[in-house]
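Dear all,

This email documents one entry for the complex benchmark we are building for the journal club exercise. For each entry we list the sequence lines for every component of the assembly. Then comes the predicted three-dimensional structure of the complex as a token string, followed by one or two observations. Please use this as the template for your own entries, and keep the labels exactly as they appear.
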Amino acid sequence: MFYPPNPTEFFATVWEIVQQIPPGSVSSYGQIASMISPGNETEPERMRHLAPRWVGTAMRKTPRGKSIPWHRVINSQGSISFPAGSAQAEEQRRLLALEGVAFDANGKVNFARVGWRGPDAAFLRRLGLLPPHLLK
DNA sequence: CGTTTGACTACGC
DNA sequence: CGCGTAGCCAAAC
């Protein structure tokens, strides 16, 4: 797959992006991965579609106590990626519920309603990321 | 130092 | 809708 040329830097970028997600909104591993460039625009398709997994790796290593809203990142299916019923899954669901993000009977959110639109232009410029309309 | 393990996703059934 | 699989390698054991 695509893999971070510099994992440390990649992880830090992921965390910065996650901090941009406002309360009440959720993003996905794939959405975040698609924002990070360079690389994902030129990467072969077969490599590119594995990038989200690295976002998952970054999330696993999320530093605590740095006010990073890790719970606002879910998978592309709109559901929590921790095993259903696990303590971590319950915690994530609880934190999201506090922000008004609800899951349906199938354990999925309505992306159309609570999906994050993406970071603002100033943030993109600061990190040198590509604007959403240039992303695939 | 060898083996196992992922906070993923698109796609086929 | 749900389940299984390929792709792919840095961490965690």
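Observations: Helices of chain A lie at 7-18, 29-35, 45-48, 51-60, 87-98, 111-114, 121-127. Confidence is low (pLDDT under 50) at residues 38-42 of chain A.
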